[in-house]
Amino acid sequence: MLSHPLANAVLRDGETFVSSRGMRLDSPPAPTAQAAGSVLIVSDPPRHGSIRRVIGSAFTPRTVRRLESTIRQTASSIVERAVTGRDCDAVQMAARLPVSVICDMLGVPRQDWEHLLELSMRAMGSGGDRAVEIEANSEILAYYEHLVKLRRKDPGDDVVSALVNGSVDGVPFSDEEIVLNCNALLSAGNETTRHSMVSGLLAFISFPDQWERLRAAPELMPAAVQEILRFTSPVMHVMRTAVRDTVIGDTDIASGDKVAVWLPAANRDAAVFAHPDRFDIGREPNRHVALSAGTHFCLGASLAATEITVFFEELMKRVDRAELAGEPRRLRSNFIWGFETAPVTLRGGTA
Question: In the chain, fewer beta carbons within 10 Å around the N or the C end?
């Protein structure tokens, strides 16, 4: 779907277009049916709202302060390490930040963060080796089973503890439901933020005037983050299933039809975004749908924006300019619009 208004119409009409029958084109029917109504991303109202409230209850002021500290410390460390080296892979560099934040959010003990990072990289960046991906995903699920048992005995201020102690309509979450929600949060939080940071850095390399503009006017950072999300649109599509006959634009849609909303295309709608292929960190307004819209608007949108903000703030402290050190290689995916590798050179700045 190319039109921004039509994309919004589908995403915001949860009564006609449901998520419980799969939210991506390659959603396998049996596992999707098993997860429907139990996992946030494949649930519909009113149950979706109940699950979302339980997960959201973990974001207490103390948790948010802890996460913000984790973001700043991790971003500072990875940028410092990248600047002191000759060349680096932006994908490997950026991967550490969202995974560390998701681990902290879920309540993963700090000594296991590196282990989860390594597993997530194998699961999501194996170059299309399905055997490697399946093995890594199985290990991640097994780890979450261990974490659920740990948090049942020793709860904390984290999402797993909120799910362990939460319920919907008086029915507690099963261990399987908690594990599947944790896995979905890891995937969603890691993929969107990581690829936004990498593609955002490559956008600044392609549009060096925008990097100089941001360094000269750091107050543009909030707008720059939204433009990074629009311009990079890391999630390529979300799928919905019509549950009644309807019309999208001039196309008849029958009940049961699958509808894919192509987010990068909606974010390049020239009727909504002037010069849509231009990376403009001062773009206002910027009504992008990179993080979806409606009921399934990204639960971690604020956290993702904070991660991207801090990452580029730390880069600005240390980097005069960034350059390509080789040819970036894109992921082979119709779901994630990102890179498998992106070699860059970061030229030291004023820090």
Answer: C
